[in-house]
Amino acid sequence: MAADCRTFTKMIPAFLNDSLRIRELSAFLAHIETCPACREELAMQYLLYEGLQRVESGKTLDLKKDLEDLIAQAGKRLSARQLLLQAAMGTEIITIGLVIILTYVIFTA
Length: 109
Prior knowledge:
By secondary structure, the protein is mainly α.
């Protein structure tokens, strides 16, 4: 197993708990998309993580579909988080600009 794969397989529990940061989630999703070994490990851990809960609740598990849905939802959450981050950064830049303008107006008046 490659060093990158070790890093990403350690991230699987955090992915399943939706606790990866934006950069981590982005890197994780990109890696899972291209690495069959890590995707298989994700499927096994997801089966254990979700399968036990489904057995207890009596619900069925379609591993392939449910895992694809989970990855797709994570991609959507990543996009939403990135948009929020960009909006926050834009707001911060505007605020800094306004402070500079107000400071200039106050001190040159």
